[in-house]
Design brief:
two-stranded antiparallel sheet, mainly alpha, three-stranded antiparallel sheet, Arc Repressor Mutant, subunit A, Fic-like fold, 15 helices
Length: 347
């Protein structure tokens, strides 16, 4: 609401944002080249990103899926759910699939936003409906303390705020107020500050982020999970969101910490995409590469279950096979026996 209008009259952009935009422009220029690489590798990356995104985006909000249930919930055509968490994770996956398939024909509108919320929240009573009661965003600490992190737009003004946000987005693109990627990040910030739904706002914001990327021609989210990168940088995500929301209601906030975070995530995704596809001449097994990439991300000591969570959708047999291979190359060592055995990376 306030950020997009503020940017319409801004004299300049943040230096870090200009740097990110230059890099993203270069990556976008190479995008078509990257997507001409091995079809099988791209297919595996798409399937993996879909699963990773559904798992990570929900896990950021405390909605967890047991690693042993990933394939049953996210791959089986008509899964049988054990609880609400599984239903919501599958709903997010189905929303992602819809966006990937039909983004070119999906408008950034209130109807789309409500539909994404309904898909991501499953068969809950207020799925797809704006909040009816006011509610603060509360941060809770381990010792039981609480604090108000942010006071969103009141319920009575939510519809008005969302209509203005969607209209400002279109005007911003039509009138070229600012670079489209900066507009995307500003829209995301304003959406989270309006906080239109009782619950599920974070997940819908990330679905909208992906949709807007597709519509602007930045396709990296098909192959690299933006949600997983946000989860890996969750502390920074919440820190920049809080910094940029201070003074938002009065139009006196600084949007650049959060805008730069969004641009950083996109740049990181493109860099990973280039490493996995664009600059690797002789691909080995794609599933193997996913496990090797996950090995880099897990702590120096880890369990197979932790590695499995880092590459959802890859079978445990494949994970064990890669670990045995890496053990033979003296890259990892096994520290014991049994299902809970810990492994350690060497070097």
């Amino acid at each position: 609401m306030h950020t997009l209008r503020f940017l319409s009259s801004a004299a300049s952009i943040h230096p870090a944002a200009a740097w990110y935009l230059a890099d993203l422009g270069e990556f976008r220029g190479k995008q078509e080249l990257y997507t001409r690489q091995s079809p099988q590798r791209l297919k595996v990356l798409r399937e993996h990103a879909l699963i990773e995104s559904a798992v990570s985006s929900n896990r950021i909000e405390g909605v967890a899926l047991d690693a042993s249930r990933v394939r049953d919930v996210l791959v089986v055509p008509k899964p049988l759910f054990r609880d609400r968490d599984e239903e919501e994770v599958r709903g997010y996956r189905d929303a992602l699939d819809w966006l990937h398939r039909e983004a070119a024909g999906i408008a950034v509108s209130e109807d789309t936003i409500r539909r994404l919320h309904a898909m991501a929240r499953g068969q809950i009573w207020d799925a797809g409906q704006y909040k009816e009661k006011d509610g603060d965003i509360i941060e809770r600490y381990a010792d039981g303390r609480e604090r108000v992190r942010f006071r969103p737009v009141a319920a009575a003004r939510t519809g008005e705020g969302m209509a203005a946000l969607v209209a400002d987005w279109q005007r911003c693109l039509d009138e070229a107020w600012v670079h489209p990627l900066i507009a995307l990040a500003a829209f995301n910030l304003d959406f989270l500050c309006i906080h239109p739904f009782r619950d599920g706002n974070g997940r819908v914001s990330r679905l909208l982020w992906l949709l807007q990327c597709h519509r602007l021609g930045y396709e990296v989210g098909r192959y690299i999970s933006l949600e997983r990168l946000v989860e890996e940088n969750k502390a920074r995500y919440y820190e920049t969101l809080e910094l940029s929301s201070q003074g938002w209601h009065e139009g006196k906030h600084d949007p650049w910490p959060y805008i730069n975070f969004v641009l950083y995530i996109l740049k990181t995704a493109y860099k990973e995409f280039a490493e996995r596809v664009g600059e690797v001449a002789a691909p080995r097994g794609s599933k193997r590469e996913l496990v090797l990439a996950a090995l880099i991300r897990v702590p120096s000591e880890f369990t197979i279950a932790e590695l499995e969570r880092a590459c959802p959708g890859v079978s445990r047999d494949m994970i064990r096979r890669v670990l045995r291979e890496q053990q033979g190359a003296d890259e990892v060592e096994c520290l014991g026996l049994g299902p809970g055995t810990r492994w350690r990376k060497r070097g």
